[in-house]
Design brief:
This protein has 16 helices and 18 strands. By secondary structure, the protein is of the alpha/beta class. Strands 14-15-13-12-11-10-9-6-16 form a nine-stranded mixed sheet, with helices on both faces. It has a five-stranded mixed sheet with strand order 2-1-3-4-5, with helices on one face. A two-stranded parallel ribbon has the order 7-8.
Length: about 500
């Protein structure tokens, strides 16, 4: 149990997210009355005006005994991107708490005080302000407290991404189409997904409504410039091939294929992919597909609810190669139950012969919507050091295979306080992933559970427009989903 008392400020959310990094899985309780503290850890965060300077201080008690006391310097001297006084105060408070917990806790926090999903956005903002690389590194390590390895990583990725993001263009947009059906629900999954066995009879109705939404968006964006398209899920390849073909044909009816810089279909699970599907995708000039094993250890595949073997993945991969796909992504998850360094080495060894153009390495995230969060105590899960060693193995592997990091994001409840990283061979980066993650271009989300993000470059902000997460609601309210988008899109015309 960790108790927290805030004095002079109310940045409860920011403080909670940072403390959770160091006390993962612990219950964190905010108290106003000190009489509510009985035992365990107590963190007191104060914000004071001392001789005209705004300062943050932190005290930490363990069962009533003071074990740490420290304060930060003048908050107004903090130098970060887009720094108004409120942001500086928020960062100063987190700096003070970080210094306290970093000196006391057993876990490491390589991402410093950053708890958000998109750390690379900070680097892009600093580049946009004309800050040079040396000073950016200094800001990342000194102000945001990043370990130098993480700071260099996101600096290098941002430099690689800018060729795809700049110059910004308010007339450019990308499309995301959600296919929310899956053969089974994996143990760790928290996405809105539906069993194809149970909801299969509704696939045709869903595709009809998705195409309706797509046609309307085509009308709305007639004077805009399409950039990339991503068909994800769920498992898009779990629906009948002709239904997926209908969706792709509808895309081309609204947006000429030659105008689309890149189109990805997340074919996904090997047990849903066959020659008929692959030939249809190839005939439709799909640039990039994903074949996602998550692990190449058969015991783990069974444990997480997959209905295929590692050999199925290998067979499917070679079949896709024979049909002519030259850009294939494969997803891995580090930290799956009962896996350690030995298991990740087995997975990487099997991938070495396949030599994919893209490899996305996820660190397991324990999300509220997953089965795993309710059954964690049944499984053996690696601690921070084991996960770090596993990620080190993936980095060694990607360097050997000439795969370079090109996008990165973090998630709440991510194991070990690490990250998810996309790697690619030179010139094979997934452009959609970059644009979607850095939020520097409008991305319109179509289908159940999809979220549109309309970008306003002059204000450097996005407006989120979510679709409903229920299948039945989507089928009944698709016109409303279009109206939601139209209301925001008209502001950009």
């Amino acid at each position: 149990m960790v108790y927290v008392n805030l004095v002079g400020h109310n940045f409860e959310y920011e403080v909670y997210e940072l403390i959770k990094v160091f006390y993962f899985g612990e219950k964190i309780i905010f108290i106003d009355n000190m009489d509510d503290y009985k035992e365990g850890i107590l963190i007191i965060s104060r914000l004071d005006d001392i001789n005209g300077e705004t300062k943050s201080s932190t005290r930490v008690y363990d069962n009533g005994n003071l074990i740490y006391e420290g304060s930060a310097g003048n908050i107004e001297k903090i130098r970060v991107d887009k720094a108004d006084i409120k942001k500086k105060i928020r960062i100063g408070i987190k700096q003070s708490i970080y210094e306290a917990l970093n000196s006391l806790a057993k876990v490491k926090a390589p991402w410093g005080i950053l708890t958000g999903i998109r750390p690379i956005k900070i680097v892009h903002n600093l580049f946009d302000e004309g800050i040079n690389e040396k000073n950016i590194m200094d800001i990342l390590t000194r102000e945001y407290k990043l370990f130098s390895q993480k700071a260099q990583l996101i600096l290098d990725i941002a430099k690689e991404q800018r060729q795809y993001l700049c110059p910004l263009d308010e007339n450019r947009f990308s499309l995301y189409l959600s296919i929310p059906f899956c053969p089974t629900r994996c143990l760790y999954c928290s996405f809105p997904s539906l069993s194809i066995g149970r909801y299969g009879p509704l696939v045709e109705d869903y595709v009809d409504k998705l195409i309706y939404e797509l046609n309307k968006v085509g009308e709305l964006m007639a004077n805009k410039i399409i950039s990339t398209v991503y068909i994800g899920g769920g498992t898009p390849s779990s629906i009948p091939v002709y239904q997926l073909d209908r969706i792709i044909q509808a895309i081309y009816k609204n947006f000429h294929r030659d105008d689309i810089e890149e189109i990805t279909v997340e074919a996904g699970r090997p047990d849903t992919i066959d020659a008929k599907l692959l030939n249809m995708l190839k005939e439709n000039r799909i640039d990039r597909i994903s074949i996602n094993p998550q692990t190449m250890n058969d015991n783990t595949l069974k444990l997480i609810g997959r209905q295929h073997s590692s050999q199925d993945t290998i067979n499917t991969y070679y079949e896709a190669r024979e049909i002519g796909f030259d850009t294939i992504n494969m997803d891995l998850i580090v930290g799956l139950p009962s896996e350690g360094v030995k298991e990740i080495k087995t997975t990487l060894k099997k991938l070495e012969d396949l030599d994919p153009e893209n490899l996305t390495v996820h660190t397991l995230s324990v999300k509220r919507g997953s089965k795993f969060i309710h059954t964690m105590d049944r499984y053996q899960v690696g601690d921070q050091k084991i996960i770090e060693n596993m990620l080190d193995e993936t980095r060694i592997f990607t360097e050997k295979m000439e795969l370079k990091p090109y996008y990165l994001y973090r998630q709440k409840q991510i194991m070990g306080n690490f990250e998810n990283t996309g790697y690619a061979k030179k010139g094979k980066e997934c452009i959609y992933n970059i644009k979607m993650m850095e939020e520097k271009e409008t991305v319109l989300g179509l289908g159940m559970g999809a979220v549109s993000k309309v970008f306003f470059p002059k204000e450097d902000r996005i407006e989120r427009v979510p679709n409903v997460k229920s299948l039945m609601e989507y089928l009944e309210r698709v016109e409303e989903m279009v109206e939601r988008k139209a209301k925001i899109i008209t502001l950009t015309l």
